[in-house]
């Protein structure tokens, strides 16, 4: 019995030191090299502080909409709904999102709606949408703000983040930064 207990206790001690002390300090040290020393990507706008790396809710017709969130954009409870593709409640939720989108974007056909506008991400906090998801909202926003669609397309192009090294990942747009740029461009044109 001693042959098994002593090595188990030693292994437990080594793992506690490594996983509870060394590894957290290693991750903390690496985070210090990142933007804002690992405290998130902070954006200050009109006296308010936002995190551009955490999804924000935008549901007004004059803004670009974010990807839906299963956790109401609460960073404390990050996660997915864990409902499968055949779950009746999940299907009803997605259908409600589709109906809402079509009601407020009547010129769009159901088959044109990008999946990232009707399904939540795995974390529920995705701050980005696809370029297609942004462009499909242009007509609604142009009508709501009474601005030229071409100006919105230029704004989308300016806010598009290219894949890492031109190879890894899709093109994407940070919704918070896009909506701030939208507000700034429309306030300048109204002056």
UniProtKB/TrEMBL annotation:
Subunit structure: The system is composed of three essential subunits: KdpA, KdpB and KdpC.
Organism: Myroides guanonis
HAMAP family assigned: KdpC
Name under which the protein is recorded: Potassium-transporting ATPase KdpC subunit
MF (Gene Ontology): ATP binding; P-type potassium transmembrane transporter activity
Cellular component annotations (GO), alphabetically ordered: plasma membrane
Membrane topology, record value: Single-pass membrane protein
Keyword match Plastid: no
Annotated localization: Cell membrane
Family: Belongs to the KdpC family.
Its biological purpose: Part of the high-affinity ATP-driven potassium transport (or Kdp) system, which catalyzes the hydrolysis of ATP coupled with the electrogenic transport of potassium into the cytoplasm. This subunit acts as a catalytic chaperone that increases the ATP-binding affinity of the ATP-hydrolyzing subunit KdpB by the formation of a transient KdpB/KdpC/ATP ternary complex.
Keyword line: ATP-binding, Cell membrane, Ion transport, Membrane, Nucleotide-binding, Potassium, Potassium transport, Transmembrane, Transmembrane helix, Transport
Superkingdom of origin: Bacteria
A Pfam family per the record: KdpC
Listed transmembrane segments: 12-31
Keyword Lyase tagged: no
Cross-referenced InterPro entries: KdpC
């Amino acid at each position: 019995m001693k042959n098994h207990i002593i090595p188990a206790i030693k292994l437990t001690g080594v793992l506690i030191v490594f996983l509870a002390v060394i590894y957290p300090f290693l991750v903390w040290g690496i985070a210090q090299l990142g933007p804002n020393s690992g405290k998130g990507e902070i954006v200050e706008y009109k006296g308010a502080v936002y995190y551009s790396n955490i999804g924000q809710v935008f549901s007004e017709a004059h803004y670009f909409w974010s990807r839906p969130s299963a956790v109401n954009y609460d960073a404390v409870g990050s996660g997915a709904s864990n409902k499968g593709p055949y779950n009746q409640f999940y299907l009803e939720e997605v259908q409600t999102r589709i109906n809402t989108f079509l009601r407020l974007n009547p010129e769009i056909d159901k088959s044109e709606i990008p999946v990232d506008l009707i399904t939540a991400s795995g974390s529920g906090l995705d701050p980005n949408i696809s370029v297609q998801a942004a462009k499909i909202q242009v007509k609604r926003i142009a009508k709501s703000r009474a601005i030229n669609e071409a100006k919105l397309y230029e704004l989308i192009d300016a806010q598009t983040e290219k894949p890492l090294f031109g190879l890894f990942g899709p093109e994407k747009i940070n919704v918070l930064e896009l909506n701030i740029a939208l507000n700034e461009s429309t306030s300048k044109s109204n002056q």
